[in-house]
Amino acid sequence: MNVVDTSGWIEYFVAGPNADFFATALSDTDELVVPMISVYEVFKWVLQKRGESEAVMAVALMQQASVVDLSTHLALEAARVSATLGIPMADSVILTTARASGGHALDPGCGLRRSRGRPLCRACGIGERRRSVRRGERTPAAWAIRRMVGSCV
Question: Taking 90 as the threshold, does the pLDDT of residue 105 lie above it?
Fold first, then answer.
């Protein structure tokens, strides 16, 4: 199973330089899990940049995969992950959804991350912490992790 980070969906929709990285995962809807927070973030971003019609079409495409609602259990686990790793709420929901589905979280090239010196990927335990945005900028799920060979979440 794959969980594509919000920024990955946006990259794909705007045909950005890393769109090809996501094309295979996004087209294999049987193996794709979409956290509800990603639906929210993508809809909001596309609505602001391209309008309601395109935002609705983006969500319709996302709903071809398995959309995972934010249950109480998932929310509490995401809060634990956020507190432990020091990552933002949306990122912790995406990471927790990937872990709960037994899948991989895909991100547009920022590489496997660490937070507070601890690896986000429990399986391989490697990676370097790097900021993917300049100080003061905010992007959806900027601390997500990239899919690695094997089971990495």
Answer: no
